[in-house]
Structure formats: C-alpha cells, structure tokens
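Could you help me review a protein record that somebody else here produced? What it holds is a sequence and that sequence's fold in token form. I need someone to confirm that the token line plausibly describes how this chain folds. Take the sequence as given and treat only the tokens as open to question. This is what I was given:
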Amino acid sequence: MTLQSISAGIDRWLDDGGPASAPTMNRTPRQEDTMNFVIYSDNGGDYHWRLDSDDGKPVAVSAGIFASADAARAAASDVHDHAGKASGVGR
C-alpha cells in the first residue's frame, strides 16, 4: 500500500485492503482535529472517497462509485471545497 499526498489535504491510498491504522495521538481538547480524505479502490476496481477522522475512523463516505482515482479525487475535492457552505444543519 502506498500513500501519495496531493493538493487540498487529500491523501490517496490505493489498495483493496480498507482503512490503514492511524497512529495513536495524545492530544489536548484545544488541539484541532485533523481529517483526511482517502481515495481507495475496491476489489472490483471501482474507486471511492472516504473522510477519516484524526483517529482513522470513517466519518463520511462517497455514495457513488467512480471509474478512476482521478474522478474520485475530483469528487472529494468538491466536497472539501464546498461542504462548509452547505445548509440544512441548525447553527
């Protein structure tokens, strides 16, 4: 399994083994959580994106499948760029 860092804070894991284990972190409540987008392929050769929390647990996944890693990365980038502007949740 290889990790390739790309723009917009999106990391790309290309494998069919699922999530990689994240290192355990000691942190204070004031530290910001770091989330990472992960692009991965399934056993059928389709691609997906997943948003992992700082402890490596998935908090969001793509609803659709993508024919290429580039297409999944573009969709994850759109979510990254526009999710903060979404409506529907009371503030």
